[in-house]
Amino acid sequence: MNEFDIDRLMRSDAARFEASSARASKVVAGVLARLPDRAPLRPSFLSLCLAILAPFTRLAVPMAAAAVLGVIVGQDLLAAQTPIRFAEMLTTASVDIAGL
Amino acid sequence: MLEQNGGNPTIGIDAAGDDDLLRAASLGDRGAFAVLMERHARPMLTLATRVTRNADEADEIVQDAFLKVWKMAPRWEPDREAKFSTWLYRVVLNASLDVRRRARYAPLEEAGDPVDTAPGGLDLAVAHQRDRLVSQALDDIPNRQRAALSLHYYAGMSAPQAAKIMELTVPAVESLLVRGKRALRSALARRGITGIGDVT
């Protein structure tokens, strides 16, 4: 028996077991009769937390970026302004004390 | 319900894709689920019947597979690589092979819907004899080879299609088909079938 014979044998064997449309419809009807009602989905704890945090998570990146930017700019301002403020204070104080 | 739920209103429910039907089914749309089943029931029944050789078992396998679909519909991810039909074929094939492994041989009188509705007595006897021999020979070959041969001959699939269902590479499935045919030939030879004339 060569490969061609095997093909022929298997195809003729398969042809005997073709399911009819009527049988398919019967199976579909059977499944529909057995279908359980769709229960409302109960969200898991994790998905509930994510749902609650979703608006915040959307804003988290811009807020973090703004905070970092604020710290950097604030430090620069502090470094630049502090000697000036001290100088001003010292000048003012010395004028007040000396009465000049 | 399908058309009101975000689908293209110009496309009827029958033209909707499997993923759309599954989405509608996940919301409890039985009509959409019925369309999905009608689309796939016949090829699934044919495959299950050919593998199990038992119409009742095949009906049960396909019904169980569809009930599984109904349950998992809310969790179906349409973007994932596997198509719905691929997944369904996998479920039905594995269940059918399991039943076949348990039963080894089911009475052929119960097997379903022959194409030739009025064969002569001798033809019928020859066909039954052939069925039994092929079925027994298939039982003798390794599982994966049997699965590949089942998809190829009983579902009419090419090697690439079978590869997706078996989650193997195409060369691996081609190799299984070659070895499976060789093993089947040996198994038939052990039963005295050395030529096609012995069973036709």
UniProtKB/TrEMBL annotation, chain A:
It comes from the Bacteria. It comes from Magnetospirillum molischianum DSM 120. This is Uncharacterized protein.
From TrEMBL, chain B:
CDD domains: Sigma70_r4. Residues 133-184 form the RNA polymerase sigma factor 70 region 4 type domain. Keywords: DNA-binding, DNA-directed RNA polymerase, Sigma factor, Transcription, Transcription regulation. GO terms for cellular component: DNA-directed RNA polymerase complex. InterPro entries: RNA_pol_sigma-70-like (IPR039425), RNA_pol_sigma-70_dom (IPR014284), RNA_pol_sigma70_r2 (IPR007627), RNA_pol_sigma70_r4_t2 (IPR013249), RNA_pol_sigma_r2 (IPR013325), RNA_pol_sigma_r3/r4-like (IPR013324), WH-like_DNA-bd_sf (IPR036388). Transmembrane segments: none annotated. The keyword Transcription regulation applies. Pfam families: Sigma70_r2 (PF04542), Sigma70_r4_2 (PF08281). The keyword GTP-binding does not apply. GO terms for molecular function: DNA binding; sigma factor activity. Residues 36-104 form the RNA polymerase sigma-70 region domain. Belongs to the sigma-70 factor family. ECF subfamily. This is DNA-directed RNA polymerase specialized sigma subunit. It comes from Magnetospirillum molischianum DSM 120.
